[in-house]
Amino acid sequence: MKNFSLKNFIPLLVLLAFLLIKGGYFDRLTEELDSGVKKDLYMKTETYDVDVTVDGEGYYLVTEQIKVKFLEDRHGIYRYIPDKGFVAYQKNGDIKKFPYLARVELELPNSDIKESKQNGAKVFRFGYSDETVRKGDYEFTYRLTPERQSQPFPYIYYNIYPSKWKNDIPKGSRFTMRFPEGTDLEKLEFYYGAYGSTESASDIIDLRKNQKENTITGILKENLPVGSGITCFSGQIQKGFAGVKGKPGISLLLWVPPVILLAVLAVLYLCLGRDEKIIPSIEFEPPQNMDSAAVGYVLDGIAEDRDILSLILYWADKGSLWIEEEEEYLMTLHKLKELPEGAPSYQRTVFRRLFQNGDSVYLNGLKNDFGLTMSSAKTQLIQEFDGESKAGIYTKPSWRLQRVAFLCTLLSVIWVTVLTGHYSYMTAVGVVVQTLLCTGMGLGMYFCCRGIDGWYSFSRAKRTLMTAGGASLFYLSEILYFVFYTYKVSANEIFDYTMEIRIVLAASAVMMPLTCFMKKRTPKCIRWMGQLSGLRSFIETAELYGGEPFLCRSLSESAVICKCFRRIIGRRKQRRFLRRRLRRRRRRQLVRSVWQKECFSKRTCRIL
């Protein structure tokens, strides 16, 4: 089927989910929704010793020695080292923070250690999958090089004990930190608590400073509980320490691809997507003796159930069947004659199914098994116009390009979301908000495309609602996306790429209307549309209604309705009677009676 439906969102949402999973978003989400770190009741940490060398170039060389005992068979342990997030520190009585990205590299290769990335952290897995142990003595060395986006951070900052360790770190565990020559050890501060806490750790550790050797040794005076860590921070610029380096930007990688896509789509639209102008002509009949289903498909390029069901009223007008309506939802169809030999395949399929068990059928009895017939008939209707060697409703390159343009427009924003998320640690709320806003953009663009494709088949109110509402949803989602991102930047939680995102969102805003108008009708369809537009104008402005426009909401039945009206319009006496003698109330009653016939297919849809 050559239309863009909500089903087309499924691959896009799968792609978005894959990218977010790849970036650790959902692991992050799961963890943050948890109230805290869950203690591992089947593991006991016996010692946790750390040796840290603070290099003058700004990196930290760390050696950890961990001894554990397991209360059940285990393969080993996992050590999570955060490689993105934000640094929180206290300066002049205020708590400050900035986002950072870190490179974590295992210094001494070890076959017992498997490396991976998860949840905004580098993961070291110790042990073998085919071997279990009850205790373990693990020692490993790694290099951690933190980086920030702009100016270097000239202060020492390091998390000695991790707050995400799932055991109490026992009393007596010790750490040693070696600093560059000339470091003022008295200016070093130690914090204790959850990640980002600035509570002094002087009560929980015994510090021993050696200014001559530029070292500090700390010993835990009591158990460090689960969820708490210890951080070393120097709020003063230290001699011989370069600090955290600035991260090279990814500006071009963020905005250049979407801008290139915009340029390509603009050229393709000008070459392949622009419709010729539809010129209405005065018509009293549908083109080429089209039936109501064919008219409905030509108008919007979409085969719908109501298009097929409108054939019942069409056949009734042709004398092929008789409709007996006892109540609003109680209808019986009686066959009067067979369809002519030249009837299209979709007509024969539905007609044959209606009367396969006799010349009369109770419409409510078709509820259970009529769906397959409808599906088959819609496929045949499409093939009638878009089969091989047939011109079709839309040019094949254009309707394919619309799908490509749809994906490109939305992927531009998803690209920025995933890439910036790779360099910043987005919170659980942030993940949900960004996903919802991307979905809002996609839905807005879909409804706008649907409203434009069905412009001539929808009522004025419906097409206005779908196009204006869809466009509003898209642009509102873009605005909220930008506002949310700038809020996160102002809170120093993520890297600042607001200028790049502004360019990408502007490019997507231009790509959206190009996408909606990308489908181009064939020259043959343009002629049909001119004739159908003239036919619609005739129905709406018929003198029968004393200048009142006829509320034709479903032009898919216009072929039938037009013929029904002509029998009334063509009778001079009736026209004069309606115009001169009937009161306005009586005219409205007549309109309502005809309107009920026009809504026949809609009621039939509800019945089936």
Would you tell me the structural class of the helices and strands? alpha+beta
Helix percent reads: 40-55%
CATH first level of the largest domain: Mainly Beta
Measured by DSSP, the beta-strand proportion falls in 15-25%
| Helical segment count | 16
- Envelope shape: elongated
Contiguous low-pLDDT stretches (5 residues minimum) are: 23-35, 543-608
State mean pLDDT (0 to 100 scale). 76
Structure commentary:
This protein is of the alpha+beta class and 608 residues long. The protein has 3 domains: 43-246, Sandwich (Immunoglobulin-like), CATH 2.60.40; 254-275 and 396-516, no CATH class; 287-393 and 521-607, no CATH class. The chain contains 16 helices and 19 strands. It has helices spanning 9-22, 25-33, 251-273, 292-300, 305-318, 345-354, 371-386, 396-423, 428-453, 460-490, 498-516, 523-540, 558-569, 572-580, 584-598, 600-607, and strands at residues 43-54, 60-74, 78-82, 84-91, 94-106, 113-118, 121-126, 133-148, 157-161, 174-178, 188-193, 199-200, 205-210, 215-220, 229-234, 245-246, 321-327, 330-335, 360-362. Strands 1, 2, 4, 5, 8, 10, 13, 14 and 16 form a 9-stranded mixed beta sheet that branches. Strands 9-15-11-12 form a 4-stranded antiparallel beta sheet, with no helix packed on it. Strands 3-7-6 form a 3-stranded antiparallel beta sheet, with no helix packed on it. Strand 4 and strand 5 form a beta hairpin. Helix 3 packs antiparallel against helix 8 (396-423). The radius of gyration is 36 Å and the shape is elongated. Mean pLDDT is 76; it is low at 23-35 and 543-608.
